[in-house]
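call fold(seq) -> tokens
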Amino acid sequence: MSGSKRQRLEAGIASLAIPCSGQQLDSLLCYLDMLERWNKTFNLTAVRDPLQMIGLHLLDSLAVHPYIENASTIIDVGTGAGLPGIPLSILNPQKKFTLLDSNGKKTRFLFQVISQLGLTNAQQVHRRVEAYTPQAKFDRVISRAFSSIPDMLSQCQHLLAEDGTFLAMKGKNPETELSKMAKAYNVTELVELKVPQIVGERHLVSIKSLSIPER
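ret:
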């Protein structure tokens, strides 16, 4: 792994003020290497340059790290190539992560990543979100894949534990989407994330359900 990748990633994580051991940094770089190699055959992400992947994928994922601090279980819905779930699971070995996606080639990639990195706190699930019924519900339901926040809420409601929080990762301020949100939900926080090495806006929306229906 070239020094430039390591230095760029290390500087970005330091800028985010997230604790990261040398072993965790190695794991992030190994994941980046696997993503770059698999991407050539399986088209996992539109970003091809591994240096761009550091900002657009790894640091973008890790920017939400403070918002899962008080959670024990997290599900990443529509995780794709494992974003944000894999970077977050590497830096949070004490938390349990479920990486959900309906695309078989992407969950096969995730199986290889989890196996190679020895991520005992992460599991991949190949299932459509509406067909997935977990044994226990989750403290955080996170996604950066949904086209709209109302869709995320309606399709993922059954995954959220009582007093859990939805975390929607967005680019520009999603005012229009939030205006269409059902009254059964309440935005508890809307923050602009400062992601190193990224040009453009990034936002995170924290949402609570005012009533968790039985399922």
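The two ends are 47 Å apart (CA to CA).
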